[in-house]
Amino acid sequence: MRNRNATAYRFLTPYLLIFAVFWVWPIISSFLISFQATRTVPWRFAPAFNWGRLIGDPAFFNALKNTLLILVIQVPVMIALAMVMAVLLNSPLLKARGLYRFAFFAPVVVGEVAYSAVFRLMFNLNFGIINKLLNSVGLPSIDWFSNVTPAMALIMIAVTWRWAGYNAIILLAGMQSIPEDVYEAATLDRVSKLKQFFFITLPLLKPVIVFCLVLSIIGTMQLFTEPFLITERGGPGGGTETLGLLLYRQGFRSLNFGYASAVAYTMAGLAIAITLVQLWLTREKQ
Amino acid sequence: MSSLSAARLRRSIALHLFLTPLALIWLFPLWMMVVFSTMPDNGIFSPGIELLPHGNFIDNFNNLQHDTDFVGAIGISVSVAVTYTFLSVLLTSMAGWALARYQFFGKGAVVAIILGTITLPYAVVLIPQFIMVARDFKLANTWVALIVPPLFNSLGVLFMRQSFSMMPDDLFDAARVEGVKEWRIFLFVALPLARPMLAALAIILFLASWNNYLWPLLINSQPGSMTAPVALGTLIGLTKVSWGGIMAGAVMLTVPMLIVFVLLQRHFIAGIAAGAIK
Q1: Does the beta-carbon distance from A111 to B213 stay under 8 Å?
Q2: Per DSSP, what are the bridge partners of residue A37?
Q3: What is the ipTM of this complex?
Q4: What is the DSSP letter of B137?
Q5: CB count in 10 Å sphere of residue A182
Q6: Per the domain annotation, does B49 fall within a domain?
Q7: In chain B, which residue's Cα lies nearest the Cα of A260?
Q8: Is a pLDDT exceeding 90 seen at residue A275?
Q9: Distance between CA B49 and CA B32 in Å, rounded?
Q10: Is B49–A172 a contact, with Cβ atoms under 8 angstroms apart?
């Protein structure tokens, strides 16, 4: 490898330029905007204006509570499910592997709008196929859109359907990079498949699992489209309102950029805190 | 030996008995998307259970086109996704090449910053990006607004850096001895060698642009400048709207991607898996 400052930066410049204009400056800018009163022109510096409002705003705490609730339930369930998919897809006993892979990986290419529309129809109270199927086995219909608990469940089901296969792809690739002879040695020593999973696969896969967790947490933290389109702007009555939706409402409906920036930085702070805790919990013991 | 293979057979049957229902559940929303798109609205909103396609797709599509100019929106989406993919692959592979093949001042910092952005929510840059593009540059409702801000991506650069750094040095040194310029080595030696990785990257970037919703929703909100997902999204929740039409639009957004996915599955999976594997 050669030391060539000029050549290297010639290759890097276009990328770094985009990065500087559309990322570095906005990161600084939104921090500054969060300390300004932006409801009147010209904007003025007022440090406590947005942050003070934030800590006393029931709408913010409602959105925070919903976001954390989805995070705590949906992410672990999805990663566990992705792990089950990956382990079973990796089994040498599996026939017609391509068909199963297609079934689980296909949602990865489906856009948020398209699948939100389908989920809305499928879970419709009177005409949705899900309630019809529930009725056909003697169960009562569930009003997915007018009650908070089923509405939250619906959001979690939708997100899990969309992203479990994505995580399974990453986990599967991680499993396939574990050398075969480790398992062969374990099998010769009569270690059961279940024990092999817990004592070989899981520890060796830890960095990949952490990567999936971090990506999923950051994704779910910003959840916007599903409560926007499926449960109709965070309904019923703010029951599925998320931080992403609050940011959209404040920033782009009320055009209150200062308050929306404070919400954005709250999300960033949470994401960084959770990521650091993850990394700390799974750190390599020296 | 036969007891061993009998045990294997039992395990295999159990595996398929568990996995098949799960796979069917996972395919169900996609199947229902297709079924809905072929049913008239009064069929979708009727008490019976319908699990098989009907023949109403063309009518539904006409209803959709009546509700919003979906064909025009598809045109914008395709043009934007193609342009974006080309530019982004170029930028990303140039940066990846620099990080993989040269030692230079500030390299560690550049890599650390790129890694750091993975854990940073996009929400933090959204508002200033919007203010800048819409108010300062006056570029709202243009293709530039849809293409340029999303050009920064971190996982793609790390993927290309990985791809280029795995190539043997001799290849490039031989060209250097001949006096070939660095940019020619990149264009005519490195890029052709990286073709499978570029394909994986291109597919992922195309898909990201094709499905992108939040940014196009904010920045291109005028009817003639909307992308297809945004145009479709405006119909969801309206009271007088053809749901068969919405489903026809969902199918038009989804089925081409599913076909690409089936044809190029290997590249697809490589592109997604790349983020995690060192």
Answers
A1: yes
A2: A44
A3: 0.91
A4: S
A5: 13
A6: yes
A7: B127
A8: no
A9: 11
A10: no
Closest CA to A171 of A197, A220, A206, A196: A206
**B184 interface with A at CB cutoff 8 Å:** no
pLDDT of residue A193: 84
Dist. CA B147–CA B32, nearest whole Å: 33
Domain match, B24 and B144 both: no
Structural domain count, chain B: 2
Dist CA A90 CA A174 (whole Å): 11
Residues in chain A: 286
Q: Which residues in chain B are contacts of A129 at CB distance < 8 A?
A: 32, 49, 51
Of A36-45, A153-162, B92-101, the least confident:
A36-45
CATH fold for the domain made of A59-281: MetI-like fold (1.10.3720)
- Confidence band for A3, pLDDT divided at 50, 70 and 90: low
Spans of chain B below 70 pLDDT: 1-4, 275-278
- Residue B14 inside a domain? The answer is yes
- The residue type of B161 is R
Cβ–Cβ gap A211/B276 under 8 Å:
yes
Per domain, the residue ranges of chain A are 59-281
Are B87 and B185 within one domain? yes
DSSP character at residue B104: -
* Residue pair A145/A138 in contact by the 8 Å Cβ criterion: no
Q: Please indicate if any CB of chain A lies within 8 Å of the CB of B199.
A: no
- What is the reported pLDDT for B169? 87
